[in-house]
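Below is one such protein, fold included:
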Amino acid sequence: MLFADRGYDYDRYRRLLWQRGIRPVIAERGQPHGSGLGVFRWVVGRTISWRHGFRRLRIRWERRDDIHEAFLGLATCLITHRHVQRLC
């Protein structure tokens, strides 16, 4: 399943997704807001903003991809750890 906003509401995109076996959930152009898709986008945006809280990840200073990816993984672990601590 793929969630998308109104900017991707074209039959061409829907057909391409169905051909790949992906069910598109795309907000329709011209319809009033309130489809509920924003709930899922907020989760993604929130997670990206949490990662930007780590200064080293805000601007990519590392030249090597593997080191940058390691810092991304470490940031994700720290975010998850903090979230689990709040729940306990």
The helical segments are 11-19, 37-52, 55-58, 65-87. The chain is about 60% helix and 5% strand. The chain has a mean pLDDT of 82.
